[in-house]
Automatic annotation (TrEMBL):
It comes from Halalkalibacter akibai (strain ATCC 43226 / DSM 21942 / CIP 109018 / JCM 9157 / 1139) (Bacillus akibai). Keywords: Cobalamin biosynthesis, Glycosyltransferase, Transferase. The gene is cobT. It catalyses: 5,6-dimethylbenzimidazole + nicotinate beta-D-ribonucleotide = alpha-ribazole 5'-phosphate + nicotinate + H(+). This is Nicotinate-nucleotide--dimethylbenzimidazole phosphoribosyltransferase. Gene3D superfamilies: 1.10.1610.10, 3.40.50.10210. The keyword S-adenosyl-L-methionine does not apply. The active site is at E314 (proton acceptor). Catalyzes the synthesis of alpha-ribazole-5'-phosphate from nicotinate mononucleotide (NAMN) and 5,6-dimethylbenzimidazole (DMB). Its EC number is 2.4.2.21. It holds the Pfam family DBI_PRT. One of its GO terms (molecular function) is nicotinate-nucleotide-dimethylbenzimidazole phosphoribosyltransferase activity. InterPro entries: Nict_dMeBzImd_PRibTrfase, Nict_dMeBzImd_PRibTrfase_bact, Nict_dMeBzImd_PRibTrfase_N, Nict_dMeBzImd_PRibTrfase_sf. GO terms for biological process: cobalamin biosynthetic process.
Length: 352
């Protein structure tokens, strides 16, 4: 079992007090940098280092297909998954642009695309050629779900061992909002109609159809809300499992996890169900416009950094938020304190 091989260290809460005290000594009014100060403390506690660094960032984009697409739940055909993987490999996607901007190490992993892709920069770890149509059959076997988690875990360790100081997870998979919505419905016990959105741009009629498909699929599959492997096997996605595994690896190594949007947050909830304290190493980077994301955020217990109306995926929201987080670390390492700068501190009013 994956739970038995993961050992995530507890946070050093004394570091929180130490770093907060140091931040209050910097040349600014207390609390004047707001959420940036909170992020600096969070990162220091995660890293167990009063002067944490998150550069370079590592970005893992997991790609896989979904059999549920056969039910007409997506605006795009399944072939787009492989086409977008080639776009990633050729450097033309949004995540490529933002990855270059932050000088991150970007890796693309085929964990379950429905067609063969050959490229010297592609990491090929295909578990199977897409999931089964979970309206009519399980998405995958329990063994395949565990295999996908292990692949994600190994790729997480690999990029960290190559020097990544923070980890951004991304995904590509036509149909994965359907799988994520189904997972979220099981975990939240909420009605699916308040969790689903238009995804890649389906019509209102398709949205109602998507709702019916997910409801019937959950009734057919009956996944256990307490068993993450059962959820993945019955209604999940290979890329969702891969991201969850990579998150577990990062937390084990005290590497901050920059959680992206709706699908990535769903993967984070699966990782949390596997090992609860993985969430201690997560920072939620943005609030997606996907309706289910608000519920996923609530279950994760995190506050997003940004709300820019994003809903692309690929890890783009996390990459966009990265410079803000880096600003938090530079505040700690480069700002002067009142003593070193020769600046008088706030004068306390004396009562007469």
């Amino acid at each position: 079992m994956i739970q038995e091989m993961i050992s995530i260290p507890a946070l050093n809460l004394e570091m929180r007090h130490k770093v907060n005290k140091y931040i209050n000594s910097l040349t600014k009014p207390r609390g004047s940098l707001g959420r940036l100060e909170e992020l600096a403390i969070e990162l220091a506690v995660m890293k167990n280092n009063p002067f944490p660094t998150i550069t370079p960032a590592g970005i893992l984009v997991f790609a896989a297909d979904h059999g549920i697409v056969a039910e007409g739940v997506s605006a795009y055909p399944q072939a787009v998954t492989a086409q977008m993987v080639r776009n990633f490999l050729n450097g033309g996607a949004a995540i490529n642009v933002f990855s270059r901007q932050i000088e991150a190490d970007l890796k693309i992993i085929d964990i379950g695309v429905a067609t063969e892709i050959e490229h010297h920069h592609l990491i090929s770890e295909k578990v199977r050629f897409g999931t089964g149509n979970f309206l009519h059959e399980d998405a995958m076997s329990r063994e395949e779900a565990e295999q996908a988690i292990h692949i994600g875990y190994s790729e997480g360790l690999n990029i960290i061992n190559q020097g990544a100081e923070s980890l951004i997870l991304g995904e590509m998979g036509i149909g994965n909002t359907t799988s994520s919505s189904a997972i979220l419905a099981v975990l939240s016990n909420k009605n699916i109609n308040c969790l689903i959105g238009y995804g890649t741009g389906i019509s209102s009629e398709q949205l109602l159809h998507k709702e019916r498909v997910i409801k019937q699929a959950i009734a057919n599959r009956k996944p256990s809300s307490k068993d993450p492997i059962d959820i993945l096997a019955k209604i999940g996605g290979l890329e969702i499992a891969g991201m969850a595994g990579a998150m577990l690896a990062a937390a084990e190594k005290r590497v901050p996890i920059l959680v992206d949007g709706f699908i990535c947050t769903t993967a984070a909830l699966i990782a949390k169900l596997i090992v609860n304290n993985v969430v201690d190493y997560m920072i939620l980077t943005h609030h997606s416009t996907e309706p289910g994301h608000a519920t996923a955020i609530s279950l994760l217990g995190k506050t997003p950094i940004l709300n820019l109306g994003l809903h692309l995926g690929e890890g783009t929201g996390a990459a966009i938020a990265f410079p803000i987080m880096r600003s938090a670390t530079l505040m700690l390492s480069e700002m002067a304190n009142f003593t070193s700068a020769g600046i008088s501190e706030k004068t306390e009013r004396v009562k007469v």
